[in-house]
Design brief:
The protein is mostly helical. It is built from 22 helices and no strands. The chain has helices spanning 9-35, 41-64, 67-92, 99-112, 121-126, 131-148, 154-180, 184-195, 199-202, 209-212, 214-229, 233-253, 258-271, 274-302, 314-320, 330-337, 342-377, 385-388, 396-402, 406-429, 436-451, 459-466. The chain is globular. The two termini are 23 Å apart. Residues 474-479 have low confidence and may be disordered.
Length: 479
């Protein structure tokens, strides 16, 4: 075990905790088939066997082939994945009976009426968090229909757009890997782990905030890392400004990416990079002010109603996470909506939160915490079936997700969880100060889960970054 003795005490404590947490998540992931029965034991073992064989084969190849050959293999796997996702988007064309359907209905109304004004006011008054996604998709769909005609299928357009966003995300993750290692073998192996992530396939045709926000977050994080390593002031300013733009977009589309932004800030503060902190602070501050000003103008241009009193406040999601299994509750939703003013909603939710926590007691709150963390980190399929069940047409791709082949696909997804946590544990056994920012991010998501509504889909946006903790590298260039 090659531990890094230069790690400071807080880093060692964080690594020990996350290593132990990874071990618990690995055990929890392995026990899911026995606890819930939603995944068959045989499919889990089959998935573990396939993944282990592929990764072992990749390891052998990394030792025997030259870097150019390894790059060619990774590129071939990447192209095969993209082709499959495009085929899935073409054949499935989801008609989801969840929030995305409201977004699709809104887009159809706006395109049919040839208006840029946001429609479906009743939905967005309660769910303004989906307004940025809808505005982005509107301009994408408008460009698509301008090229292919007004009768063009926007379901297909949404699927293709989502595949493009996932593809860009994977390419950016490849670049991020280089920020943590200069070893081509490590880069190849980590890239293969990224490509084997079954969430790309499970959510390829579901163009919602989870995947649409990912390339912005990955791009922002990459530029943040480059800004810290740059010795040229001009390049550092450009990277900081670009990072701010991309992080701004990521947070607008998926607000939980604020955790990644805060993790980057905490990392810089902990490293005491005062010069970089001052420069990044000034550049990012100015950039964000300009961006927010521009966004407000665009928002007012397309959104003609106010959501302050009608929107579900943050306390609502904390309330849902404070009782039962910490999951979505229609009863809680109706309760919050019953209050006409924002202040009343906040007060009512806070009172219920305090009441729920008191009623749970110490043992009940501990049980709730365990259930919520297991929901987020141990459910390999990440709840994808809820969002991909309904489609325009039947196809082999749909059979993989929800038909006769679904048992084996879900087993593979669960196996990926088990294997990735095992690889992360191995990564922690090699003390590496370069991955501290990723460790801080994972810790932030763990703590956030304790106070928020829990859903297995939420980890889809976290997993690509957390997977990078499996990187094992001997290089000591600092960030």
């Amino acid at each position: 075990m090659h531990t890094n003795t230069d790690l400071r005490l807080p880093e060692k404590i964080l690594q020990v905790f996350l290593c132990f947490f990874s071990f618990l998540c690995m055990l929890g992931s392995a026990r899911i088939p026995f606890l819930t029965g939603s995944i068959s034991v045989r499919s889990l073992f089959a998935g573990c066997f396939v993944l282990a064989a592929v990764l072992l084969g990749s390891y052998v190849l990394s030792r025997r082939l030259k870097p150019k050959q390894l790059y060619s293999i990774r590129t071939a796997v990447f192209i095969a994945l993209v082709v499959y996702m495009l085929a899935e988007a073409y054949f499935i064309r989801l008609t989801p009976r969840v929030d995305l359907q409201s977004v699709i209905d809104t887009l159809r109304k706006m395109l049919a009426g040839n208006t840029y004004i946001l429609q479906n006011q009743e939905y967005y008054e309660v769910n303004p968090n989906n307004i940025p996604l809808t505005l982005l998709l509107y301009w994408v769909m408008r460009a698509y229909t301008a090229v292919f005609g007004a009768e063009a299928d926007i379901l297909l357009a949404g699927g293709i757009f989502n595949v493009v966003m996932i593809t860009v995300t994977i390419l950016l993750l490849f670049r991020i890997i280089r920020e943590f290692t200069a070893d081509p073998r490590t880069e190849f192996l980590t890239g293969m782990v990224i490509l084997l992530n079954p969430c790309w396939i499970a959510y390829a045709s579901y163009y919602y905030t989870d995947t649409v926000s990912l390339p912005f977050a990955a791009g922002g994080f990459l530029l943040f890392m480059k800004s810290l390593r740059s010795e040229d002031t001009g390049k550092m300013i450009m990277c900081a400004a670009g990072s701010s733009v991309l992080f701004f977009a990521a947070v607008k589309i998926r607000v939980t990416f604020i955790l990644l932004v805060l993790s980057c800030l905490i990392y810089v503060l902990y490293r005491r990079r005062w010069k970089e902190l001052l420069l990044l602070g000034v550049v990012s501050g100015v950039t964000l002010i300009l961006l927010q000003s521009a966004y407000v103008q665009l928002y007012r241009f397309q959104v003609t109603f106010d959501t302050y009193d009608t929107a579900l406040p943050a306390e609502h999601f904390m309330m849902m996470g404070s009782h039962g299994n910490g999951a979505f509750s229609e009863e809680d939703r109706n309760y919050t909506k019953s209050f006409p003013l924002h202040a009343q909603k906040v007060q009512a939710c806070r009172e219920r939160i305090y009441g729920n926590l008191k009623e749970n007691g110490i043992a009940g709150n501990l049980r709730l915490a365990v259930v919520k963390e297991m929901t987020l980190w141990c459910d390999g399929p990440h709840g994808y079936r809820q969002f991909t069940e309904y489609a325009v047409r039947e196809s082999v791709m749909h059979e993989v997700l929800n038909g006769k082949y679904a048992e084996w696909f879900r087993g593979y997804m669960q196996a990926y969880n088990v294997i990735v946590y095992l690889l992360i544990i191995r990564g922690f056994l090699y003390g590496d100060e370069k991955k501290l920012v990723l460790q801080i991010f994972w810790m932030a998501t763990i703590l956030f889960t304790l106070i928020w509504e829990a859903h297995p889909r939420h980890s889809v946006t976290y997993l690509p970054f957390i997977t990078l903790l499996c990187i094992v590298s001997g290089e000591k260039h600092k960030v």
